[in-house]
Amino acid sequence: MCGKAAVSHLSWAEVYAYASLLTAPPALPADPESRINISPSRLRRKSEPDSMVWETLPVIYRADEVDTPCEAIWPFIPAYSEGRLPTNKEGRLISTANARLRSEGTPFAPTFMGAWSAGSRVLVAASWFYEFDSRVRPQVPYAVFPTDAPCWLMAGLARWTRLPDGSRHLSVAIITVDPNEVLKSVGHHRSPALLRDAAEARAWLSGERNQAQALLRPYANETMGVEAVPMGIKIPGNEQVELPATLQRRR
Asked: What are the tens digits of pLDDT across the range 149-174?
């Protein structure tokens, strides 16, 4: 899965230079805010709807033949939950941060099939993401980063939603697939769907559906790095974490 990510001094110019086959707009927006601890949107106090903390990730979506950058709310907001985090019949929050690729039947759960069928595919840009070793207690957090690229480009599904204040925003789920050997080595059983180069990025945004689905597979082991990070990264929104030198050099 992917339940926590970092966007560290990442510029849109750098993203488009890496994904060089995309059609960028004539002018780029302000660069994404630098944050090393991004979790899905959440309530500070579950009993108080007004304590909502909306979190975003930088994404690129295709519209009118242009690959357009924006900040998208994380997680995905389905139609039945317009403008708020989804809940079940008992009122408990449902996680829609990740859309798990299924091995049988429809590719995704019903919550995400509308976006998949409509071709609402996006690229999610992140400097690195975090995974937690489920074999030990407490679970050890690891940062997972590309060794041959300025950032990850993750495959995502998106839907526009309108928040209670009337503003309209894109919302996003990161697609997850089986892990590669690197992620298995740190005790993790899922992985974001990671696109490998500019051609895959373009195909994900504008290719046929069967072509896009073929891109959803484990990432190459050789170009994925992992580094243990302090336990403080587990606290949502905690930016006061001393990162190891490997990650400091990527900032």
From this structure: 999 999 999 999 999 899 999 999 99
**Section 66-89 average pLDDT:** 95
State yes or no: cis peptide before 75, omega within 30 of 0: yes
Contacts 24+ apart (CB under 8 A), 49-56: 49/84, 52/85, 53/236, 53/237, 54/163
Our CA angle for 224, 228, 231, nearest 5°, is 140
Task: Report the percentage of the chain scoring pLDDT > 90.
Answer: 86
Whether the Cβ atoms of residue 76 and residue 41 lie closer than 8 Å to each other:
no
| Other CB atoms within 10 Å distance of the CB of residue 240 | 9
Length of the chain: 251
CA dist list (Å): 120 to 61, 107, 114, 225? 8, 14, 9, 30
On whether the CB atoms of residues 98 and 54 are closer than 8 A, the answer is no
106-118 b/e with 16+ CB inside 10 Å = b? Answer: ebbeebbeebbee
Averaged pLDDT of the chain: 94
Q: Identify the residue whose tokens are 């950058």.
A: 69
Q: Which amino acid is at 214?
A: A
- The model's pTM is 0.96
